[in-house]
User: Fold these one by one.
Assistant:
Number 1:
Amino acid sequence: MIEKRRGAMRLAACDAAARERGLSPGMTLADARARVPDVVAVQADVAADRVWLDAIADACDRFTPLVMVEPPDGLVLDMTGCLHRYDDEPALLVEVDAAMRRWASVARAAMAATPEGARALARFQMLPAPDEASALRRLPVAALELDSENHAGLRRAGFRTLCDLADRPMAPLAARFGGDLVDRLRRILGEGDSRLVPRRMPPALAVERRFAEPIATAEAALGVIGDLAAEVQAMLETRGRGGRRFVARLYRSDGHVTTLAIDSSRPLRDAQGIARLFVERVGSLNDPLDPGFGYDMIRLAVPRDEPLAVAQLALEGGATGKGADGEDIAALVDRLSTRVGARRVRRFVPRDSHLPEQTALALPAIEAPAPAPWPAPEPGEPPLRPLHMFDPPQPVEVIAAVPDGPPQRFRWRRTLHEVVYAEGPERIAAEWWRRAPGDHGLTRDYYRVEDGRGRRFWLFRHGLYGSERTDPRWYVHGLFA
């Protein structure tokens, strides 16, 4: 595999036959062809390699939820608290190796107390050792994975293994080769603080089922998800919580992983409701579920949860009328969002802004915050804002008695309207704190007008005469009922 580095085509990876004939990664393609004229060079596809590595990481979720990707060809699994499923560490390594054989012809695995130690053992250990500490100290200095200049400097200074460095004072090593060498050495030997950054954060809770005989139908898989939802419901009730997002992962026996996710517009823990949403989700898939040779493991996780109080019941039993309406609407939003897509079902949410077009936002209903009360008009007063607003406002031609006075007639959509009544102006200034430097914005003067046929419009003059612009323009922004 070749890729362009430092202005030349170089070998990015070699198979065993190429290595036996003296080729190695980093060598230029010209040198490789000089040594092996019949070498087969293929352009490396970094994006495809990353997709391949992510697919392996998904399959490794069956061992632990904490998986970190180390491109281009490494994975780190944190097995803390997960070893109880296996007889011992060697048994775990055997199972991991068997799973990796489905994806790669060559895989090296190792266990250590730190991610850096496990990486170093997997990549550089050549001979067995009686214990972890001995194995780490016998590793070559190449396990530090320093740049070529520092690595050559270590070799010239007579350092061959990590044991040679560990027995020396750290201060002189840091002064000569940099603090990065000391930090890497301490992390590999388990003397420094090591952190693993997983590709997915651990969920609030998760339950799973493993099967001695894989289940081979999508209906059976949905039934298992329903059973897991009942377990999740009991756990959420104990905690006084409800889930806002549920993720089901179906692990096929050949290593393929199918992920199904649903969201809820309010905290949810009803097992039947969760199972029904997953049925809707499967029904909305472009490609139906393909069990292949069967699912040998199914996991249901709750990545996001929120407090959920016990529902208030009426005296005669059942939910109160107000609560029932809210529950029914939320259930409808959840089902529609799951079936047609979250972005296609929206809810208007009030926003604290004095600009009319920004006082309400249309957000996905399943992600919108809890509904807030809308401002109510004064009793007996006409509404301040129209029911229908244009986005963007539509230009009109206006004639006024004085330049900064109310409109007397205006032409909109090739129709002339004579103004009978006008109320205003309501002056609205631009948001100075959001404007770009040098942009002073324009003031709007709004008028509520009624024409001779009783139709009511909301017009505004954009800009002030003399101060902001000499030719303010008029627009119709909305229509009153």
Number 2:
Amino acid sequence: MRILLADDERAIAITLADDLRRAGHEVVGVGDGPQAVAAFEAGAFDVVVTDMRMPGLSGLDLLERVKASGRETEVIIITGYGTIDSAVDAMRKGAFDYVLKPFNNEEILEKLRKIREFRRLRHENAELREELDLQKGLGQLVGRSPPMQRVIERIRTVADRDARVLITGESGTGKERVARALHDISRRRDGPFVPLACAAIPAQLLEDEIFGHERGAFTDAKERKAGRFERAHGGTLFLDDIDDMPLETQVKLLRVLQEGEVEPLGGTQAIPVDVRVIAATKVDLAEAVEDGEFREDLYYRLNVVAIDLPPLRERADDIPLLVDHFLRRAAAGRTYTIAPEVMAELRAYRWPGNVRELENAIERAVALAGADGTLAREALLEGALRRRRRGAEEAEGAALVTLKEVVRDAEAAHIRRVLKAVEGHRANAARVLGISRKNLWEKMKEFGID
């Protein structure tokens, strides 16, 4: 270790320095307090060994300078019987330990060994806490399939870099869980995680929710309200369904990202905010930019790092793990079983609602389970069975349907033909169909078109 030895008694300083060097330590010796401060500020030291009484500056004053620096430097105080009360005071102020004169140099060496062991344990504890934080954050994400392992690896890589992240994926794939994992293993994990679902708030209220307002900003503004940006200060703001944000709100969001400050509605002074923004979208924002439905400059501000979540049908190997995970959460101490052939059907089903649909299926099956704990096929595969019945009914009685159903089926079939003709490019398909890209996406979702 590198040691700063401050003692004005030359005989003590020389013999102690010699023994410290023989034990493998690097020693810098000084004879008074001001020299000790100058040496400490000029170099890095693991330990300061200082006499309590020195010309120019006391050992207690030196201790306070060392602790105020914020460095991880330990201090050992050398004191006589007459200043033992000061040594106890030094311990309260952060000294590692003290020795009484006259002392054997081995006492100092033993305390240095304790410091080395203390540092080793502190380092191991820090690594353990980091690993536990990592497990806690990534524990929200269940999956060993290659697509999910790529997602987890990307999260590990970018979590602590404070870069903005755009999470893409179909509805129900777990975008908020990814955002929470990013927050939980980042340096901001002790700060707030503030989610906002843009699609769930009416457009006229969204700006107030994001930016807040001052008292008297409008008729019902009877008191000041902090927006989500202010509430997320020092932490993470998660903007889900960013594609549903109106263009005029996008302009104001862009300004906050550029300036790092937010101006509440009705306010006259901008408020600095330190917030990491993570956004999520269920549509292709690049296509939305092409269609003029999303600002290009905001898209590039948000899309610093992209994480694309695979749909459940592309990670069928994870379905047994997810089933087990959801069963443990919903079981409340009971044991449930799923027949192997039913599990095979679960893996074969395409799960248009993704992980959220699977979770709901498990909760429904647990609620309807019999006394023996066997989960019914009909409860687990209700969505798949309903779709099969609908297909069979359409095949058997196509003539016995309402005009509205005929028009709906014709519309769905035409959208499929156009999508196939343009090789799945939704922006081009929307232009051919004469509708907006968002309208096309809504119809595709309604008709179950991939």
Number 3:
Amino acid sequence: MNLPFDDALFEVVVCQFGVMFYPDRISGYSEAYRVLKPGGKLIFNVWDRIETNEFAGLVNEAAARVFPDDPPQVLTRTPHGYHDENLIRDELNGVGFKEVSFESLETTS
């Protein structure tokens, strides 16, 4: 949320499986934008909906059986809760990123 770097210092900022854990994504994106040179790129990845991850889905279902009155939603909310491309695009556009693209990669772990 507060990167210790000068403005416009980097050509690329990379964040692997982190943005969905930011306490304030707008601040995080703003900081990435601030430290990027004009035309620089922010590259990051996020997990898809929990329904697309068999293991996380099973863990979520098992937890719901153990706590039926108040099932934990931690996996559904974070990290699997930040996948909406329209929301991500809007947040990135809101801090200044103009060209936003998405690429889906399906793998099994």
